[in-house]
Design goal:
Helix 5 (101-110) links the parallel strand 5 (95-99) and strand 6. The N and C termini lie close together (10 Å). It is built from 7 helices and 14 strands. Helices cover 18% and strands 26% of the residues.
């Protein structure tokens, strides 16, 4: 797995912000919008299409996305969808997309030009995709089984985390329901939302994320979806053993 982006919805540096993290622009404090990619036996599974997708894939030298899974439909996880246009040529057909029906409905509204029956002017004018609706049941893709993990993103909004083998990716989460905790048991690696030191209504803060880690006891944890209030170099020195702030380009071995 590569963490393509580890930043909050506005990225880091944030526009107009004069805090030390944004002004200092130290390498591991530069965070594009949250996304990840898993190298599976049958190809690359992208999790979310952030607005920074093209930059992320070029930075990591990744030429092809073979399939996409969406955590939810917020714009910082969706708006790079059009960057999928080229992959139909490499795959010889549409890009498979796995998502909840709410995400599918949003894609069809926001990117309606990609879902019409009108004849296109030329191949590659729009993304060519095939939607597969998922809920809570595990699904097979690219030679691996992916388990969706239902989570809360604020009091009313639901998102999906994903587990493949002994690694789980859980961004944009304020609470993990008790019914989902068994899906996160016996992990080698957990990637979990930790927005900032102070509480937030729709994201875990550092203390809440640490509390969850102590409950689940994964071997290693990386924080993602981090705002500029979280300085990689300072916070990492103070975190418990086995917990680190993630950064753009971090590579995690799949077990």
């Amino acid at each position: 797995m590569i963490l393509l982006g580890t930043g909050t919805s506005v990225g880091v540096p944030a526009l107009g912000c004069q805090c030390p993290v944004c002004v200092g622009r130290l390498p591991k404090n530069i965070r594009t919008r949250a996304s990840a990619i898993l190298g599976l036996p049958g190809g690359n599974l992208l999790i979310d299409t952030s607005p920074d997708l093209r930059t992320q894939l070029l930075r990591e030298g990744l030429g092809i996305v073979h399939a996409v899974a969406y955590t939810h439909e917020h714009s910082d996880h969706l708006m790079g969808f059009d960057d999928l246009r080229l992959f139909q040529f490499y795959l010889g057909g549409p890009v498979p997309i796995y998502c909840h029906r709410h995400v599918a409905d949003c894609l069809k509204r926001v990117f309606s030009y990609a879902f019409t029956n009108e004849e296109q002017t030329h191949a590659g004018a729009v993304p060519s995709v095939e939607l597969f609706e998922i809920e809570t049941a595990p699904f097979d893709v690219l030679g691996a089984t992916v388990t969706p993990i239902p989570m809360l993103h604020g009091p009313k909004f639901r998102v999906l985390g994903f587990r493949v083998g002994d690694i789980a990716y859980c961004t944009d989460v304020s609470e993990v329901p008790a019914s989902s905790l068994p899906l996160l048991a016996d992990l080698d690696t957990l990637v979990i939302d930790a927005l900032r030191p102070n509480p937030h209504p729709t994201h875990m803060n550092i203390d809440q994320a640490i509390e969850l880690v102590r409950l689940l006891r994964p071997r290693q944890t990386y924080f993602t979806h981090c705002a500029c209030q979280l300085d990689y170099y300072d916070v990492n020195r103070r975190l418990p053993k086995g917990i680190e702030v993630g950064y753009d380009g971090l590579r995690i071995q799949l077990v």
